[in-house]
Amino acid sequence: MAQIEIENLHFTYAGTQSPSLQEINLTIEKGDFIILTGPSGCGKTTLCRCLNGLIPNFYNGDFEGTIEILGMDTSNRPISELARRVGFVFQNPENQLFSLSVERDIAFGPENLGLQREEIKKRVEWALRVTGTEHLRDYAPYELSGGQQQRVAIASVLAMRPEIIVLDEPTSFLDPKASNDLLMTISKLNDKLGITIILVEHRLDLASKYAKRVLIMNEGRILLDGPPTKVYNEDVYLIGVGIPKVSLLFHLLRKDGIEIKKIPVDTSEAVQFLERRMK
Ligand SMILES: Nc1ncnc2c1ncn2[C@@H]1O[C@H](COP(=O)(O)OP(=O)(O)O)[C@@H](O)[C@H]1O
Ligand SMILES: [Mg+2]
Predict the structure, then answer these.
(1) 114: which of 70, 122, 248, 264 is 20 to 30 A away, CA to CA?
(2) pLDDT tens digits for range 59-104
(3) Is the pTM of this model over 0.85?
């Protein structure tokens, strides 16, 4: 059964003229790992707000269509009910962490669910372990590096045992090494725990190898939707989508007249292409 079912969604923020989302039709199955990308201002964050019920329950505007998440119609459910089942991680972890220790931050969600002490403790230990942050438990979040903070932000969401996790540009403030470590942690949640992942990301070089599906948005619409191989074969770099550099190189070679049927999405595919050509 689909976990997320969006039909004919249109949304225009109150006080603005043009719609931020148009004709969105989207089905997401359990265990999917989706990269949502597209030029700045194309509506990625707005679509994320639809997944946690902030639209239409918190942001005013003109809303049309239906959004069903885990069988719930988001327009008539309290945000708190969705929040325990759909976890959110934002660009800036400082907005998400507020306690004086990592452990307290992770316990905050389960405490609010009114769980027993033993269960809370169990969940905190589990979330620390899965995200590789056990050694950080007694630190204050502000003492940590950006990459460590993001891992703790994921742990605090994980402790609610969500079925879906949405991450809105979680690597923007991280260097490539910390970004890659974070993406590996996210991939583990998908692989080992079957959590559905929706990752808004510009760094397609790093993230693509983990994704099962890439959605490209432009001007409030979903322009392309498919496996990375299919999506990166299209000319999306022209609208400012930062496809992997190796794919971009092959697009430019194709434009210069070299026959390339299928654009490689990573270096191993590029090597295969070159080996075939050199035979
Ligand atoms: N709270 C808001 N009120 C009015 N307009 C908004 C608001 N948030 C975003 N927008 C507008 O909606 C469009 C999509 O923005 P956003 O979803 O933030 O894009 P992205 O995350 O892809 O950069 C932009 O034109 C932006 O100005
Ligand atoms: Mg955004």
Answers:
(1) 70
(2) 999 999 999 999 999 998 888 889 889 999 999 888 888 899 999 9
(3) yes
Compute the distance from residue 41 Cα to the ligand 2 centre, in Å: 7
Beta carbon of 41 within 6 Å of any ligand 1 atom:
yes
Please check whether residue 210 is in contact with residue 187, taking contact to mean a CB–CB distance below 8 angstroms: yes
In tens, the pLDDT along 254-266 reads 999 999 999 999 9
Exposed, middle or buried by CB within 10 Å (0-12, 13-18, 19+), for 152?
buried
Residue carrying structure tokens 């942690």: 185
**What superfamily would CATH give domain 2-228?**
P-loop containing nucleotide triphosphate hydrolases (3.40.50.300)
Instruction: At 149, list the tokens.
Output: 């903070």
Q: Is the CB of 27 under 6 A from ligand 1?
A: no
Domain ranges of the chain: 2-228, 244-279
Question: Ligand 1 test: best mutation among 18, 40, 46, 169, most atoms within 8 Å of CB?
Answer: 46
